[in-house]
Write a structure and sequence with these properties.
Blueprint: H1 8-34, H2 40-67, H3 72-94, H4 101-118
Helix pairs in contact: 1-2, 1-3, 3-4
Length: 120
């Protein structure tokens, strides 16, 4: 196991990226449920308002991770895996979308990406 996984900076980065992705997932997709009857401009402005809070968390997450010796490509793969980890429950529980076998295949591909990007 890579020493990076025992680093406090790694876990702080993961926590902040999970939190920021909760905001971003809602900003990107929540309006489809909550503002579908509103004009596009209202949805865009509401999404930007939510995304502002995402950026307040995401930018420090990446700074902490990068300062903690997490490489740029590693940060990106972490972001993508976390984004899917937040998106799937959001899709299932909030948006009531059906589970598909493709979720499993996509998750396996992402695990492969994590393996290779963090491989020593």
């Amino acid at each position: 196991m890579s020493a990076i996984f025992t680093s406090p900076a790694f876990w702080k980065t993961v926590f902040l990226l999970v939190l920021s992705n909760c905001f971003m997932t809602y900003a990107w997709y929540g309006h489809l449920k909550t503002l579908s009857g509103k004009p596009l401009l209202v949805a865009v402005l509401a999404s930007w308002g939510v995304a502002f809070f995402e950026y307040l968390i995401q930018v420090p997450a990446n700074r902490i991770g990068h300062a903690g010796n997490i490489g740029l490509a590693q940060l990106k793969i972490m972001q993508e895996v976390i984004a899917l980890s937040v998106f799937v429950p959001f899709s299932l529980l909030y948006m009531k979308e059906p589970v598909k076998l493709n979720f499993l295949w996509a998750a396996l591909c992402m695990l492969g990406a994590v393996y290779f990007i963090f491989k020593d």
